[in-house]
Write a structure and sequence with these properties.
heterodimer, A: about 500 residues, two-stranded antiparallel ribbon, about 75% helix, about 0% strand, B: about 500 residues, mainly alpha
Chain lengths: ~500, ~500
Amino acid sequence: MTVQNPLIDYHAIAPEMVMAGAIFVVLTADLFLPRERKWVAMPLAFLGALGALVATLTLAGEERATFGGSYVVDGFAVLFKVFFTVAAMVVLAISFRYVREGRFYQGEYYFLILCSFLGMLTIVSSRDLLMLFISLELVSAPGFLLAGFRKGDPRSNEAAIKFFLIGVLSSAVMLYGMSLVYGVTGSLRLEEIAARLPEAGESNVVLAAVLFVVAGFAFKVSSFPFQFWAPDTYEGSPVPVAAYLSVASKAAGFAGLLQLMFVAFLPVAEFWAPIFGVLALFTMTLGNLVALQQRQVVRLLAYSSIAQAGYMLVPFALAGFSPEVDRAALSAAVLYLLIYGVMNLGAFAVVVAVAREAPGVLVADFAGLAQRAPALAVSLAAFLLSLAGIPPLAGFWAKFFIFTAAIDRGGLGPWLAAALVVNSVISVVYYVAVIRPMFFEPAPQPVRPLRASALLTAVVVVAALTVLAVGVFPDLFADFPARATLVAGS
Amino acid sequence: MSGWEKSAVTLAVFLPAAGALAVALVPRHLDRLIRALGILSSGAALAVGVAILFGFDYGAGRELQFELNTRWIDAINARYHVGLDGISLPLFELTLLLSFLCLVYTWRFLPEPGRPKAFVALTLLLETGMAGTFVAFDLILFFIFWELVLVPMYFLIGIWGSANREYAAIKFFLYTLFGSVFMLLAFLGMFFKGPTPHTFDLLALQEFGAAGGFSRDLQMLLFAGVFLGFAIKVPMWPFHTWLPDAHTEAPTIGSVLLAGILLKMGTYGFVRIALPVLPDAARAWAPAIGVLAVIAIVYAALACLAQRDLKRLIAFSSVGHMGFVMLGIATLSDIGINAAIFGMVAHGIITGMLFFEVGSIYDRYHTRMIADIGGGMLQKIPWLAGLFAYTAIASLGLPGLAGFWGEVMALLSAYNPSGAVSEWTTLFRTLMVFGGIGTILTAGYFLWMLQRVNLGTVPDRWRDVPIPDVTRVELVAWAPLLVGILLLGVFPRAVLGVTNEAVEALVRVFGG
């Protein structure tokens, strides 16, 4: 292919450049800011994310490729870049007071957050294995540091070290798998891999290569059997970091996985799709059953996010049947990620507000929240019911579209759909277990209103309204994934 | 079609939701304003409902009137399709009326722990869900309205209920949710195996189903799915166990709306969706449904005889009355289904009224135990006791009052079920006999209940306690129901005249 690309298409990488610029500004500014003004790093970082969002929006509807086709801007990439830049702003907003009052190194904190989000921006444009790997490491490495940011707390240290060791191990496994893929196909480019894989046939090497790569990603998205780091890490991390890990970092993993599976490995889908079926089944069931036992809200949300990952793995199990089903499955997965991001970030935002007064964030600490902060309580109830998939909230449609794709697929599909349904009903029990004390139990006397910052309250209310609006008019979101076609580069 | 005809139904459905939003924005200390807003918005919805009554063409009950069919979710071709025909109109109006009366009642009565803002907003939201269910002609829309009811009712029971409320609330929630997901699965089955292009439109699916579009095996499977969803909601024996708990623990308003309307959503689902879309399966399932229905009648009557809690007794009696409704539906005949719809409306009015009265009795005696009340209500509070007796007698099916027609027509239809199930005629006639025994038992437990609470002398513990009789707010909230009980009793055509056309059109698919 001899497409006359300029050596580097600067417009295509504008969002990343803005983000990178913001990273340098934040880090440099932190050097010169006096101690009591260190918080200024947050507005700077926020502006950087906003700038990246604007830069992304200028790319909407375009299809560009640069770096010899290994870096692509298409509907899929733009959609996710919008998602990640908005998520970055949300994470920054809910971190602000937490980090400022918690005596953290503020400049470094925002610097690391932005670095990780830069990785997310690049991962969705990466169309070769090397770019994918580097981006994924860029996402994860700041995460290791962020998880350990509450330095005084041994649990935070444990969180970081667990996250780090397992993360490195899985990276190594993934890299080995990628090297095998290269060995078999002689290419790192996703669409070339797709073209050459069928020739290689179902040799054991191909199977091993795919398995290794999948295992690496399974860690990132906290899928069974690589899920056990998640609850400990989330619990030990600062709460906003847990929010970021459970939404942004997980979504990045899924975005990478989607590109890999639905572009590069699609020709051998009949081999790996059933594996995903099993992974999905175990992940959702295990996440839900263990979540039932939890009394600490961050841990509960951690297991809930494992269960949610299980639902999101279902579309992968449907791949390779027919182009229509592939498209439906891909759209369903993307839609789920978008909606999951909104509701989970919203839920964590409320937890951040509660954690300020009750750092342990036990379920019991939510007693009477409806009296102390009605807006936050109602919003949290909406997020949790949405996570459970109760209509008319956004989460219902997220499940619904996976559901329809699964039924349409036939074969294994309806069984997975049934498993998804049964699991959703189970999940209601523990989501309601958090809602119950908020509304049914009196607040501890004397009743004091819970003072959340205006910024955080605004984020929560906007997220809740989004969850409701999408619930009533799913076309608000359901339209996006249809445009998120994956272009393999040119 | 004029703009009014297109928007009337939507207006009536969403006015309460708009009211809920308005209530949510009012500061919580403006108690009176909040309750007034509740009455106002549900009253406005009722006014629209009354206007619809005048605009409805009763000669064309089989036609969908006040129809609006517009795009909603393009991705799955689900449309916002609402309208009214002879079957949905009575239930729709019942919903608007009962909800309004409940909010009037709330003007004066609000159970512990108060919090009128949340209470009124949730009740209004509930009204939107209930009313929407009866007008939706798109399966996804139907499902959304159906599920919209869950969360407000969960909170109504869980916050304002009596001692065991939290258990009852979550049981209600999980039970119904469990049933409805299978219903959704069946809806998706209809979508993918139905006409091309795939559609959730109920009219299109009915046409497709009547023409034998779904294979018999598939129908059996799909029917099993919708059956679980509807049967739990009705509730049919043996899926009824959530009901006594939920009804007993719920606050008065919650019980009234649960018994008055929520249960009808299940039976309505059978008539509206299960029967016309899956006629072959309905034919095959009919005997089983009939048997379950009669078991429910007899079982509920026996259970009622054993109850010591007044409210729990009324709750169990609902299981029995819904049994008569299901028996009527199971016969697949026009008389049976007419009886079913009449029975739904009558039960909604009567049992709604009974729960109001039990609530008021509890309000005065602070107990619901029959033994603790100990009799003598007719002496102590003659008006309330008299009304209670009147309603209870209506509920046991005395001719001349509303409860009579639904039961007697259901039994009648069991004697002569539709030709579609003619090979089961003997079974249905046997069922009729057991149903008849059920009516005798029903009369028995109601009269025994009246004997224990109304008659006799006032026990010592209440003699010197001042107990007020019926208050003005109660009278206002109840008057329409009390009149309705008599009116439907002497003039059943008020409902049957509306439903008959639509029902005849419906049973044509069963050849009768």
